[in-house]
Amino acid sequence: MQCHSPPHPSLPQFLQLLKRVSHSSSPASESITLLDDSGFQANRDLICSAIWALREEWKAAFVAFNWGNCYDDEKVCNLMIWVLGTHAKFSTAWSIIGDMHRSSISTRQAMLIMIDRYAAANNATKAIQTFNFMEKFRLALDQEAFYALLTSLCKHENVEEAEEFMLANKKLFPLETEGFNIILNGWCNITTDIFEAKRVWREMPKYCITSDATSYSHMISCFSKIGNLFDSLRLYDEMKRRGWIPTIEVYNSLVYVLTRENCLKEAIKVVDKMKEEGLQPDSTTFNSMIRPLCEAGKLAEARIILNTLLEENLSPTTETYHAFLEVTDYQGTLEFLSKMKGSGLGPNEDSFLIILAKFLKLKQHANAVKIWMEMKKCDVVPSCMHFKTMVEGLVACRWFIKARDFYEEMISNGCSEDPKLKMIFQKELVDSGGKGKQNVKKVTSY
Question: Which sign does the torsion angle of CA 37, 43, 49, 51 carry?
Fold first, then answer.
């Protein structure tokens, strides 16, 4: 869900105004008047771009939506509903849907968004109720909407609820392979629960459901993820015997499990076989070798595969670089950060979370602090998660002075206080006695 409108030239200034207005204690009417007198024109592209840019700050996004009076624009309404649902502001989202319905604007997509947001909030009951409620808005409870519900539930790890709902409604929506594949995907690729996946796989024939290529792909993926080479190859052979053509996803799964189980030569042979079958290996194919090699500490082999990827005129992805960042030393980390920047792939917030967690786990707190400075050079703004990772890691390394400095900066940046960390600092101050004044800064209240 995102806004595809081109960036508006005055968007940065408009965003600043919206943030200021949303944090103001003035009545809503005064905020609207301030926006009316700002000189900005409430056109669709500006409002849509603003809502998307402010998707992490729902209040400011909602100010833009209300000021733009976009209740008659289905696309903008759907985007605002997604933002509100993401922040669990469901009552406000429902009010927009009510306005859309009264204005005779289609609410089908809006309802599907609500289903997905409820599922994301781990509220499967509300997601299912919303599906059933679609009839109240004169929307057809067709198979497309039914599968959308199952997909949303599974995507957000409510697989058990999705499976129960599918079986309970088999009279209204006859059981088909596509429905079971959605459930299989949930168990295989979302939760990676091989026991549940095998159970569903065994039960499919009992419901007269025939497995297809997608079914095999999900099961092979699951066996691959848990390192079960034997069953991955067994299902691959069975799939071919039954006339199903393996997709690139199946071959990527085989490449991964072979590499993970120390069969790199065989994995490379699978890549060659892909080419013989007319399939072009992609970045994911090579990542499927790079990732397990890095996890096993085989950096030399991983670098060789990275060079092969480049020789194939393929581009590394963020996942490629993150695999190396998780295991390389300080110099190697700087090298791959530079490569990411050069290829236009960041580094991003996740990149630095990976690196900070790595060095702090290794008790290399000095390197973690140096990486913090690199993060600022890369124009990545530290989030509350970055601060918390640093503070907790430095405390674990017993570097209390630096930990306290980061904690104070964390609070000053608007992050919530952490009672556990605050207690640790207080305890260290007491335990250190007279040395506490030298080792730990005085604890202050916020």
Answer: positive
174 vs 150: CA distance, rounded Å: 14
Which residue has tokens 């509903």?
A: 81
How far apart are the C-alpha atoms of 354 and 322, rounded to whole Å?
Answer: 8
How far apart CA 255 and CA 326 sit, in angstroms, is 21
**Amino acid in the structure at residue 54:** L
Domain spans, the chain: 316-381, 399-446
* Residue in this structure with the two tokens 């602090």, named with its chain if needed: 369
For 143-178, what is each residue's pLDDT tens digit?
Answer: 999 999 999 999 999 999 999 999 999 999 999 999
Q: Specify the pTM.
A: 0.86
* Predicted pLDDT of residue 445: 35
Q: Which two tokens stand for residue 40?
A: 């900005």
- For 399, residues 6+ apart whose C-beta sits below 8 A from its C-beta are 365
3 pLDDT more than 70: no
Tokens encoding 229: 């080479």
Helices assigned H by DSSP within 136-228: 143-155, 159-168, 177-185, 194-203, 213-225
C-alpha distances in angstroms, 377 versus 357, 363, 364, 370?
A: 19, 23, 20, 11
pLDDT in tens, 75-104: 999 999 999 999 999 999 999 999 999 999
pLDDT score of 413 more than 90: no
- On the 0-12 / 13-18 / 19+ scale of CB atoms within 10 A, 27 is exposed
Question: Can you tell me the mean pLDDT for 376-396?
Answer: 92
Region of 112 on the Ramachandran plot (φ > 0 left; ψ -120 to 50 alpha; else beta): alpha
